Amino acid sequence: MVNTIFHPAQTRGTADHGWLYSRHTFSFADYYNPDRMHFGALRVLNDDTVAAGMGFGSHPHSNMEIISIPLEGDLEHKDSMNNLAVIRNGDIQVMSAGTGIRHSEYNKNQDKVVKFLQIWVIPNKKDVTPRYDQISLDIKDRHNKLQQIISPQMNDEGVWIHQNAWFHLGMFDQGYSSNYKLKDENNGVYIFNLKGDIKVNDQKMSSRDGYGIWNTKELTISADTDSEFLIIEVPMSID
């Protein structure tokens, strides 16, 4: 039997620190909802807006796969492995925190905000050697297509993480429809709609709505308007 869960955009947690405005799909920091702790191995899905010139000072992470997807502006990353990089819309950044890492993230610009998705996935291996990876993708390759950005394999499309998970981005024209077949039938899929109106099977979704579905082999995504969305396929059981 197919299982689903729907998270309307307005039901997300909110954090407003002045320099940072964030919406939390799952429990995070001061937002706690026992019914929204995670979706399988997907632990955090934060929709962040950082004011000009501001950012997160150096802070630690361990045993988590951390994915950043810039939506607007320029985000500067610096970490304890001596990586210094700027990520922009079209880039995908992955950090395997493993045994421990420190990093900071700042808005590179003094005149505009930066917007990005911060996503945490629970890994299938603990205490791995910390790792940083970043790629730049052609946004046109997700126009009326599902562009793979994350996978479990080093030599597959996109970047890889320590989990049996796949992420895809889609940018569909109004009226376009496509099927998504799960890579692993034991996984579930969480769709986060970034822009426009879509329909996942029979579920209508507006901007920033989230929808989880599991115990299924495939699903259909249809664009009711020009739309952008993220598909996150993750294991539903975690050790």
Description:
With about 240 residues, the chain is mainly beta. The protein has two domains: about 10-135, Sandwich (Jelly Rolls); about 140-235, Jelly Rolls. It is built from no helices and 22 strands. Strand 18 (about 200) and strand 19 (about 205) form a beta hairpin. The two termini are about 25 Å apart.
Structural class: mainly beta
CATH topology (level 3) name of the largest domain:
Jelly Rolls
Q: H/E element string?
A: EEEEEEEEEEEEEEEEEEEEEE
What's the CATH class of the largest domain, please? Mainly Beta
Q: Give the strand line-up of the largest sheet.
A: 1-20-17-22-15-13-14
* DSSP strand count: 22
Number of domains: 2
What are the segments in which pLDDT stays under 50 over at least 5 consecutive residues?
none
Give the DSSP E fraction (strand runs of 2 or more residues): over 45%
Largest sheet: 7 strands, mixed
What is the typical, i.e. mean, pLDDT?
96
- Quick one: CATH superfamily of the largest domain? Jelly Rolls
Rounded Rg: 17 Å
Helix content: under 10%
Give the N-to-C terminal Cα separation. Answer: 23 Å
The CATH architecture of the largest domain would be: Sandwich
Number of helical segments with 4 or more residues: 0
